[in-house]
Amino acid sequence: MSLNEEQKPLLEEDQIHQEFEALLEDYRNTNHRQKVELITKAFNFANAAHKGIKRRSGEPYIMHPLAVARIVVREIGLGSTSICSALLHDVVEDTDYTIEDIENLFGPKIAQIVDGLTKISGGVFAEKASEQAENFRKLLITMSEDIRVILIKISDRLHNMRTLGSMPPAKQYKIAGETQYIYAPLAHRLGLFRIKTELENLSFKYEHPETYQTIEQKLLADEVARNKFYEEFSKPINTKLTQMGYEFSLKARLKSVYSIWRKMSTRNIPFEEVYDLLALRIVFKPREGMNEKDQCWMLYSAITALYKPHPERIRDWVSTPKANGYEALHVTVMGPGGRWVEVQIRSERMNDIAEKGLAAHWKYKLGEADESELDKWLKTIKELLEHPEPNAIDFMDTFKLNLFASEIFVFTPKGEIKTIGQGATALDFAYMVHSDLGNHCIGAKVNHKLVPLTYKLNSGDQIEILTSKKQTPQLEWLDYVTTARAKAKLRAMFKKEEKALITEGQEKIEAQLAALKLAPDNEHMVRILNHYNITQRNELYLQAGKGLLNLGEINKILFRPKTQNVFTKYLKIPFVGSNENNKQGPTVPVDSKIDRKKPLKLTEENAGKIFRLAECCHPIPGDDVLGYVDDSETVIIHKRQCPVAAKLKSSFGERIISVDWATHKALSFEEVLEIKGIDKKGVLIEILKVVSEGYGVNISKMNIETNAGIFIGRFHIYVHDVEDINNLCKNISKIKEVNSVQRVQE
Ligand code: MN
């Protein structure tokens, strides 16, 4: 055995203990309670558990948990529970120890966090999109249980990204992609701005190594000139702030390679035209007796006295912090040589929040009542998880919307500020305030002007939501909303509606069967399913509930004529509208009986002779209808959903016959369309144009009410059949201001 091999384990031990000492040093530098003993215990346990195992880089494995723990304490500012969990995060995953062992040694809290970390250790990416979505879901659930799980997971990922070079290329791509896709946005959303930038930059480095190198080299080539410029630019600011008596630090912030690349590709410009490579950050110690916000603006005045500000590039995150808690005042000024430079003004506290995000938030939080934006966000995650989407991919899409959105500020009519994702519509806003407001939203007033619910909000807009009790969520609203909250609420509503339709459809079909004196047993149901070419019962019920099936056919499919003579009894029927005009022509005599085994064809020639249309429900060709044979052997046609027909079906089932519409294009029927929308100039003309020009349909009467910028119009029109109505509705609803159009009964 050579001397070298003897020495190596000793060196490793030194290396490990050096790193552990550094961790303790980081910890002692924080304000946390001094639990060095517990941390030492966790370290010793993890060190023993991972003994002899090497990372791919050749380092002892324990160096990884140690590094993660250091990120946790130094870069995120978490305390002993998180440090211990970070030290132990790979123990259950990689060794024979169990969660129970951890719980026995370190208590339930640390065990719960380690358990969460173990559950999501597989990462988000998987072979199948569905698996990936499921993993992501798991991640969110774990996260909403204890936010520290995700903070440690992000630290774990950060260290893996920092050491990604020793991984084989295929793994590099996968890990880098996953980081870019999910961990960087999560870090951003949690306010870990510095970490997010580093994660993005490292991902980019491994995904596009050549581009990364090119930009890095250009940055290097520019370095000398850039430093000279920075000196020249910052000197007057330094002098001025010193004169003002401030304690402060100035830092040059160089744009990351990834952000430079993103700017180049989104703006389609070369490297040389990215003018804001450099930013200046001022972090100041606030003076006593004056609030930080005022002091930020004082510094702003001082700087803009030296350099001219760009009027459109002031970002005031001091008056209203970002949803992730970020506070600062950004201003872009013209520096020497006409070069624009961004100046970021932050107090020490603001800087802490910007660097450490959530953890710093907790530190500065004033009592429980102060619900930060981040807490609200975590609450929405919980809400989303409480109403899970049946389809995990939908869920991921919905959730991702929340991660990537950057925010704008809008105002309620009372002047209250709300934060909402960029690109949000008036409808999103309605759902953000309250789901009832969303469900009944018909439009909005933005800055006192009427707008449709699809209106895209701008920062600073004041929004008043207009509602109507009659309004219900429409399927196309899913296209109108961009926030996860609104999407989730809508999906939940539609699911509820679908359930109601399924029940309704089932009742319809069962009533139909009962009228035929048949049970909804398997044999009959299978025949019905086969007939409509549907495989699932629920799907059949749903379609029936929506009125898409001509249930009259059930008769045809299943009806076995009963031998009893229905003509022996003449019953008095309580309804039959008696429109005298329709009674012309001979009534069919009793002996020329209608063939009840076959559906009756409703032809134009037979109208008024063999059949008449019921007054109560006004069926027109194309409607789902049934026939009732009355005393005089005339068939009265009712809509299936007509309450009178339902009564007849249950009392005189044997007199119900199925009927089929023949094509009708000669007769016209008066129908009423109810149209609701935004009362904008010209909208009525648009509607009339569609009705009369497009379809040659006659309007006999119309009645329009307007209220608060919303109109409700009732149009009496003449149509041939349901197809006409459907086409008409479809085309009218294409008019931008029209919100809903439906056939109603007067
Ligand atoms: Mn790890």
How does this model look, in words?
The structure is a single chain. The protein is of the alpha+beta class and 746 residues long. It has six domains: 16-212, Hypothetical protein af1432; 214-363, Beta Polymerase, domain 2, CATH 3.30.460; 373-486, Roll (Ubiquitin-like (UB roll)), CATH 3.10.20; 492-551; 573-663, no CATH class; 669-743, 2-Layer Sandwich (Alpha-Beta Plaits), CATH 3.30.70. Helix content is 49%, strand content 16%. It has 29 helices and 20 strands. β4 (329-334) and β5 (340-347) form a beta hairpin. It is elongated, with a radius of gyration of 36 Å. Mean pLDDT is 80; it is low at 365-370 and 560-592. The structure holds manganese (II) ion. Manganese (II) ion is lined by residues 64, 89-90, 156.
What is the tally of helical segments? 29
CATH topology-level fold name of the largest domain: Hypothetical protein af1432
What's the average pLDDT? Answer: 80
As an assembly, this protein is single chain
Low-confidence segments, given as residue ranges, are 365-370, 560-592
Let me know the largest β-sheet. Answer: 5 strands, mixed
Structurally, the number of domains stands at 6
CATH top level of the largest domain is: Mainly Alpha
CATH level 4 superfamily of the largest domain: Hypothetical protein af1432
Q: Categorize the overall geometry.
A: elongated
Summed up:
By secondary structure, the chain is α+β, with helices and mostly antiparallel strands.
